[in-house]
Amino acid sequence: MKENILGVDVCGDTYEQLADKLLEDIEHGRKSFIVAINPEKIMKAQQDEELNHLLNQATYQIPDGIGIILASMLKGGKIRKRVTGIDMMLHLCKEAAIHQKKVFLYGAKPGIADEAKSKLEEMYPGIQIVGTLDGYEKDEQVIEARINESKAEIIFVALGSPTQENWIISHKDKLSPSVYQGVGGSFDVISGRLNRAPAFFQRFGLEWLYRLLKEPWRWKRQLVLPKFLIKVLKG
Ligand code: UDP
């Protein structure tokens, strides 16, 4: 079940439903691509046809952010629960450990993916993280060889948006993994280099408020949320 918000598809599946579908994709050797959708990306896509197409090309567009839930409510849709990029990644890692699926971490500054690997191994004993590569390696042959030799089935790509989405689209057909997820700054958070909002803010969908309190100079970027909701109401 997908809903269309201002021209961009968004999936209504829960973490569990998505994980089941992704495991099935791996079993059948199907390529699937997860992209996190937030109001900022939808607003950018209004002016950027290519980005719009890119987002709609993903297999699963997850509702990352309270703004998407509010938009679905305003439009009479059914999406009521967020599926955040980082929690989707953690959920998939948990399932990968249980079902013995091989994982690759690609992206972030040198050393960070290795630190994230150690943390994930502590969190999900038995997880098979078969390779890591930083996001500043630019030799295409090295990148492809490292990923394919690892025989990974799931790859998390942390290059920032939309670089990671473009990379996934242009590489997935020549690489071994079935499942591709663009995860932005998630390796920085998992490695412990970057703090996530405290649980209270997460529970109530108030990460934006935490960010505003910590980095008040970003307030202008946050105007995108009311602008987005007004556009949804008008559309
Ligand atoms: N990054 C990278 N290679 C690059 C540029 C960026 O690996 O050439 C990484 C960067 O180190 C960071 C992530 O991409 O870990 C970008 O995170 P950000 O939170 O900016 O993601 P976004 O908000 O764009 O999803």
UniProtKB/TrEMBL annotation:
InterPro entries: TagA_TarA, WecG_TagA_CpsF. The keyword Cell wall biogenesis/degradation applies. Pathway: Cell wall biogenesis; teichoic acid biosynthesis. Keywords: Cell wall biogenesis/degradation, Glycosyltransferase, Teichoic acid biosynthesis, Transferase. It is an enzyme of class 2 (transferase). The keyword Glycosyltransferase applies. It comes from the Bacteria. GO terms for molecular function: N-acetylglucosaminyldiphosphoundecaprenol N-acetyl-beta-D-mannosaminyltransferase activity. CDD domains: Glyco_transf_WecG_TagA. Its EC number is 2.4.1.187. It catalyses: UDP-N-acetyl-alpha-D-mannosamine + N-acetyl-alpha-D-glucosaminyl-di-trans,octa-cis-undecaprenyl diphosphate = N-acetyl-beta-D-mannosaminyl-(1->4)-N-acetyl-alpha-D-glucosaminyl di-trans,octa-cis-undecaprenyl diphosphate + UDP + H(+). Belongs to the glycosyltransferase 26 family. TagA/TarA subfamily. Catalyzes the conversion of GlcNAc-PP-undecaprenol into ManNAc-GlcNAc-PP-undecaprenol, the first committed lipid intermediate in the de novo synthesis of teichoic acid. PANTHER family: PTHR34136, UDP-N-ACETYL-D-MANNOSAMINURONIC ACID TRANSFERASE (PTHR34136:SF1). This is N-acetylglucosaminyldiphosphoundecaprenol N-acetyl-beta-D-mannosaminyltransferase.
